[in-house]
Design goal:
It contains ten helices and 13 strands. With about 300 residues, it is of the alpha/beta class. The protein starts with 7 loop residues before the first strand and ends with a helix. It has a seven-stranded mixed sheet with strand order 8-9-10-7-11-12-13, covered by helices on one side.
Length: about 300
């Protein structure tokens, strides 16, 4: 498909919660024809397809064949399989996080996308919140970041550790703001209700002295997703749940960022950015290389905190 075409045919691999979100965004776009949704559970695919008046697929290759681009929103351990199949078929891909189950496999996917000149974007939605606030426009390097990302018990995403499930959002933001390579990390983890880490904390130190302290749990009593960024002249504290911030930095940030479409519907902003990259050739909003960087650190944390 030429990037100068005005509409693309898109499909969604995975008809669960996030697959449904992506499918609805495609269905609502006048630049997209939603070709269909795929799931190994035929009933789930049929239910979502019926809601959106599209086709349900139980054959992955058939869906990919009928599309120009796909979202991969299957369980995390299956991302690699779906992304690779789509890329090898010459399709552009928006992969929900994590990009793959291992850094090595993530690197393989990036190589395939580069060789075939395909868009490969990752679903790190919090970047759009920071864009709406203006954080990425700050010229000064932060000195320290501390964050906690606490979630309630759920049956979703239990195929991966809490670092790959929840903490990876904050890891992506830390890696995006860092100005020097990571020098070392120290991590701890706890199993609570699965065989994988359900709570973890990490201290990351970068070569220029920048430090990040992150804590995540998927067995908390309440949602709590807060990040504090310390600069030389003050701090910024962001509440991702309430979509508010305290700005003591002196930097001119957007206090009304919660009303910005990029923050109000960050998943929709990610999908729209993907559509624009495919159809218009705009730079990829969340490149696969960024997704790989966050994944690699998440796996390093899991190894460092091995139980």
């Amino acid at each position: 498909m030429s990037i100068h075409d005005t509409q693309m045919k898109a499909g969604v691999i995975g008809a669960g919660v996030f697959g449904g979100h992506h499918a609805r965004k495609y269905a609502a776009s006048d630049r997209v024809h939603l070709a269909g949704v795929y799931d190994t559970d035929a009933g789930r695919a049929e239910a979502l397809a019926a809601q959106l008046e599209t086709r349900a697929y139980t054959d992955l290759e058939a869906l990919i064949s009928d599309c120009d681009a796909v979202t991969v929103a299957s369980p995390a351990v299956h991302h690699y399989t779906g992304v690779k199949a789509a890329l090898q078929a010459g399709r552009h891909v928006l992969a929900e996080k994590p990009l793959a189950d291992t850094a090595a496999r993530g690197g393989e996917l990036i190589r395939i996308a580069r060789e075939r000149n395909l868009v490969l974007q990752v679903g790190h939605q919090e970047r759009f919140v920071f864009n709406a606030m203006g954080v990425f426009d700050i010229d000064e390097a932060p000195r320290r970041i501390s964050a906690r990302r606490m979630g309630l018990r759920s049956t979703r995403n239990l195929d991966v550790s809490v670092t790959v499930d929840l903490m990876i959002h904050d890891l992506d933001l830390v890696m995006a703001l860092a100005r020097a390579p990571l020098a070392r990390l120290e991590a701890n983890a706890t199993r609570i209700f699965t065989s994988l880490p359900d709570a973890a904390d990490v201290r990351m130190v970068f070569e220029d002295g920048f430090e990040a302290l992150l804590e995540s749990s998927r067995a908390a009593e309440a949602l709590d997703r807060v990040m504090r960024i310390d600069y030389a002249g003050g701090f910024l504290e962001v509440d991702f749940v309430a979509k508010t911030f305290i700005n003591e930095t002196g930097f001119d940030l957007n206090a009304d960022f919660a009303e910005d479409p990029k923050a109000k519907d960050s998943l929709g902003a990610n999908v729209n950015a993907f559509i624009e990259s495919v159809l218009d050739g705009t730079p990829v909003a969340v490149p696969a290389e960024a997704g790989l960087a966050a994944l690699a650190v998440a796996r390093d944390i899991d190894r460092a905190a091995a139980l």
